[in-house]
Amino acid sequence: MTWCLFGKPFDGGKRMDHGSQQQQQQQQQQHPAMMRLYEVQREVQSLGPQVCTFSGLKNEREYRRLERELTRLLLEVDQVDTEGRADLQGARKRAAQEVEGLLRYLEENATHPSRLAIEELSREAQRLVEQGVVEPQRAGGTAEISDELVDAVQELILKLTQVKTGGRVPLRKARYRALTRLCAVQDVIEGRTRQQTLPLPLSEDTHAAVQKINQIMVQVSGARSQLVALLMGLSGRDSCAHLSRVLTELLVELDALDVSGNAAVRNYRKQVVEEINGLLKHLDLEGEGDDTRRYDLAQNDSIRQIEAVRGRVCQLRGEVLRHCGVGDLFRPKPELQSLLTHLDQVDTARNPCIREARRRAVLEVQAVITFLDLREALICRQPCQNEPQQHRAVWMVLGSLSDLQAQVLCFEGKRADKNYILLEELLTKQLLALDAVDPQGDEMTKVARKQAVKFAQNILSYLDMKTDEWEY
């Protein structure tokens, strides 16, 4: 956020030539009041980026510091003596408005409902992890990671991805920080779950180095719980840097062991090294999120690839619908299949937002493919004379669903729109019509009705996805 002390050049109510205007501006710039306002401007320009990227809450130290500095600047602006001059009064007013704007922006983001929702989800995650991982470890036991804990963490991650930020940088940053830490915790506890299913460590009689490796494994198990506590803000004394040094020292000890000539012990040591490296990769999160490319996913390469695919799908979808409108069938299925392959190769880097973006793009491609498949099936259909009435009824519903899907594919409104409500009602009626079909023991009709029901439900889900206002 930047501001300028000068609007239109002050002319005292009289027309001045270019030279007079320059002289007037020089006098304004040299005035002590204007010089002081320029100093305030420089301080505001320094604080502006800090305010615009602050992603914390009102009770944090950084918030209080920024609020204190901006309040001080506002008081200093208010104390500038304008000597009754209109030009100085205008400059002072603009300076005050800029400082007040920063103060308002700082408070709005720290108290925004989405920011509070992120905080509440983070605290819920803290409670889960403390009860399921940290407390058993502190009590001297070993945390047994349950499927319920894994599922609960996954559910919280999905809820975080659904928090709306409205494009605000501080909210994006807060959501990204919460997600990266919770995804790291998910990775650690899932690794712990996998380890619980591994065979017991090798017997110490196998090799002289096994005893040392087993001791290191015990330390690694403790470090895992310590890492989870650090990621969730549940460890006040330790730091990521300290834990990183401890784990690095364990790697050095493992590297110094002589395990030559015994493949089993060598593989055992390799597993332990991989465990440690898996923990170390999560210890660089203290500065995570400072780079806007991290949390502003519009700049992310994977998102750009996904968006490029979505753009092409939009073009193909338009061509398909245009040809259907004139009774023709445009068949770009090979290209659509290649787009699915491309999406499958997009690197999500375990980022749930990118995973969700890719999933939605896949659904968009699949929606066009299923539309083409059904259209083609309807065109090629040649019913026999003795076709059961109930089977014909299913095909009639499928014909109606195909027409409705064409409308859904080109729908670009919101859930409050009349067209959305109408489409939802019409699709529900088709489901009721399918429910009324009695197969009368005919297996082919049973299969066809089941497929038609699934098809109708997929169209409803796709319509719902198009209107849920999801964002990266």
UniProtKB/TrEMBL annotation:
InterPro entries assigned to the protein according to its UniProt record, in alphabetical order: BAG_chaperone_regulator (IPR039773), BAG_dom_sf (IPR036533), BAG_domain (IPR003103)
Domain called BAG: residue spans: 39-110, 209-287, 335-376, 390-467
Assigned keywords, A-Z: Chaperone, Repeat
GO cellular component assignments: cytosol; membrane; nucleus
Domain of life: Eukaryota
GO function term, MF aspect, one: protein-folding chaperone binding
PANTHER family found in the cross-reference section: BAG FAMILY MOLECULAR CHAPERONE REGULATOR 5, BCL2-ASSOCIATED ATHANOGENE
Protein name, per record: BAG family molecular chaperone regulator 5
Organism encoding this protein: Esox lucius (Northern pike)
